[in-house]
Design goal:
alpha+beta, 6 strands, Methane Monooxygenase Hydroxylase, Chain G, domain 1, 354 residues, Jelly Rolls
């Protein structure tokens, strides 16, 4: 069980360690429950000290604990504080039960990586894209290895819809198919590493396929994080939250680049599906009609929407209506998994109308 500890103002929870120091005191991940804690670290370029005050409920000490690497900052108690301590095993178990925690930490880490990238770019005059997509795929594979197939499927799908041109898409699609079939994670795959970098399909730009401006980069990153958060909310059956996040992402449509517009399509689909999952059938049917009208360019999502409606018709015992939709789905260019689901539903419906 996690332990609650009290720290007096002025005390040190842990000290920053040099890169060549032996990493110790790495047994815990910390959460600020009450009080005030400040993290003090050195900038990469000028070695100046910078301080960051933590918010209540915020995790710290995560990267060093999980990576068994030296602490990058000093954690100092500025006002009497209550700190919750997790062992590494307890923290990993918490992440398995609450995948949203993992996605939120990825959001923080990706922001830190972008800042490091910019500093190195300035110091070395080099262009290098830190590929945060790899971290999302690692999350999906972590759940797959842990036999949390529902979580893995949503994380794989979040990767594929957020990074449609990534050079790891084939790997993600193969693993998604295995997870959907209930197959275990294959032990013969090579581990992902930071060398699995982004290559934009058909552009020839490779690792330089980044937004030209900092504001565009931040906007795109926010859209990707929102898309992942929607998937996490659906995993946890937080349908109201998924709807709110989807509406926020849809509202960003005019601000996104053309390559990011597919996220809007998926957000609209997830919003529609969330209403169905929470039992608001009238709203689902209304959104279904507008979805077919506004997103007809995306045949794969149209097929998914039609299957959702076919399942509803089946539940309402409108078998002929359901059959009509399923047969239409089988004529569309859609995913193998959706074709398989459509064929299974077709056989079931045909047996009911005989």
């Amino acid at each position: 069980m996690p332990q609650m500890r009290s720290y007096k103002a002025g005390s040190i929870i842990y000290f920053r360690q040099e890169s060549d120091e032996k990493a110790d005191n790495l047994d815990n991940v910390f959460v600020l429950q009450d009080g005030k804690v400040s993290l003090s670290s050195l900038t990469l370029d000028t070695q100046e000290e910078v301080k960051e005050d933590l918010l209540k409920g915020e995790f710290f000490g995560v990267k060093s604990a999980l990576g068994k690497s030296p602490r990058e900052e000093t954690a100092m108690v500025m006002a009497d504080a209550q700190i919750l301590l997790f062992s590494i095993k307890e923290f990993e178990a918490l992440c398995l039960k609450n995948p949203r925690i993992v996605l939120q930490m990825l959001k923080v880490f990706s922001g830190q990586l972008r800042r490091i990238h910019k500093t190195l770019h300035h110091l070395l005059g080099e262009s290098h894209n830190v590929d945060n997509a790899v971290n999302l795929l690692k999350t999906a594979e972590f759940y797959h290895k842990s036999a949390r197939l529902g979580h893995a499927i949503y994380a794989y799908e979040a990767f594929l819809k957020s990074y449609e041109s990534h050079n790891l898409n084939e790997r993600a699609r193969d693993l998604l198919k295995k997870a959907q079939q209930g197959d275990p994670y294959p032990g013969t795959l090579d581990a992902l590493s930071s060398s699995n970098t982004f290559a934009a399909a058909g552009t020839g730009e490779g690792n330089n396929a980044m937004a030209d401006s900092e504001s565009a980069e931040q906007q795109n990153s926010e859209a990707e994080v929102l898309s992942s958060d929607i998937s996490s909310s659906l995993i946890n059956k937080n349908y109201d939250e998924a709807i709110e996040l989807a509406e926020k992402l849809i509202g960003m449509a005019d601000q996104l680049s053309e390559s990011e517009q597919h996220l809007i399509d998926h957000a609209a689909f997830d919003k529609m599906r969330s209403f169905k999952m929470k039992g608001d059938i009238d709203q689902f049917k209304s959104l279904y009609k507008s979805f077919l009208k506004n997103y007809g360019h995306n045949q794969k999502l149209i097929a998914k929407a039609m299957l959702e409606m076919a399942e509803l018709h089946k539940k309402e015992k409108k078998f002929e209506d359901a059959l009509s939709l399923v047969r239409a789905v089988l004529k569309l260019n859609t995913d193998d998994s959706d074709k398989r689901n459509a064929n299974n539903l077709l056989r079931d419906l045909e047996s009911k109308v005989k």
